[in-house]
Write a structure and sequence with these properties.
This protein is mainly alpha-helical. It is built from 14 helices and no strands. The chain has one domain.
Amino acid sequence: MNVLYAELIKLKNANIVWLSFIAFGLAPVMGAVFILIMRDPDALANAGALSLKIEAMGIKPDWNAYLGILTQAIGVGGVLVFGFVASWIFGREYTDGTVKDLLSLPSSRSSILNAKFIIYIFWCVGLCISNLLTGLILGYFLQFPSLNMTETLNHLAIYFNTAFLTIIIGTPIAFFALRGKGYMGALGFVALTLVIAQIIGASGYGSFFPWAVPGLYSGISQEYKASLNAFSYGIVFLTGLIGYIATIFYWRYADQQ
């Protein structure tokens, strides 16, 4: 609890927290702009390739489309933003030169990392809830037709399940932040996984790549989402578990000189 309290104090004085909420909050705003364009025939006609994509996807300016956009933002953009969060939480001690002070605390190395993982989870969940609330407020002003309770619960289930999957695959980033002794190695790993996820996802094999699974589950492609199976979700959980164990094991026995 003492280590967790120390981590909370760091967050309290870190501007990066609010910047992450602002950056991630662009998703519901851009989604609202996207819906407004769809509602305006003249704007849609001038949208070029965007209008063709909208017609091909058969998207309608309603809650189903808007909540789908918010969910896809979690499944795709969340890999980047959550990865940045993990990189900062686990890499900042090296960048700020405070890792030796952290290790001198009367707490085990495992408890220090567990506190950081707890902060990572709550930070990411906070980002998801913030985006959802922002989306609901913007949706209210857009005056969408009301959804029934079944549709609403279904959308919320998909939204938070997507967030859960995206958060899980962030644990290996903690390992790379510690192994690289800073942000750069971890952020490089995040960028690499994003590129590979896009390539593999487009090729139809995204169900076998853990960092592509959240995006596919979010509904970015209904055809590829249907390819997800127990193995797809199993590999996501396995990746998260391996990332956690590797992080704990490495920091427990690593030479911090």
